[in-house]
Specification:
The chain has 2 domains: about 55 residues, no CATH class; about 30 residues. The chain has 2 helices and 5 strands. The chain has a 3-stranded antiparallel β-sheet with strand order 2-3-4, with helices on one face. A two-stranded antiparallel sheet has the order 1-5.
Length: about 100
């Protein structure tokens, strides 16, 4: 087994429009409201607009490989576990 690629970076500008299926017609679009700004900040989703049909919506800039999904779950569990231990340690030792 080689190195597991967890995330594959993908540029939505080069992929097909989900509405009209035109190739490479998507362009980055500015966030129009608070909700879109929040989504853009906390997720991998970005707002895009199709110059062919006018479709507008979120596209992910990162895609998970099927094979890597298990690795992602393990990583997330490890992060949560580390965070929990850090919190436990701080609460029990640092504050005394
Ligand atoms: Zn389109």
């Amino acid at each position: 087994m080689g190195t597991t690629k967890v995330f594959i970076y993908r540029n939505p500008q080069l992929s097909r429009c989900p509405n009209c299926s035109s190739l490479a017609t998507l362009h980055r679009s500015r966030a129009r409201n608070m909700w879109e700004q929040i989504v853009r900040k906390i997720t991998f989703l970005k707002t895009y607009r199709c110059k062919e049909c006018g479709w507008r919506g979120f596209r992910s800039t990162i895609t998970f490989t099927k094979k890597s999904l298990k690795a992602v779950i393990i990583y997330v569990s490890l992060i949560l576990l580390t965070a929990w231990f850090a919190r436990y340690f701080i609460l029990n030792y640092a504050l005394n």
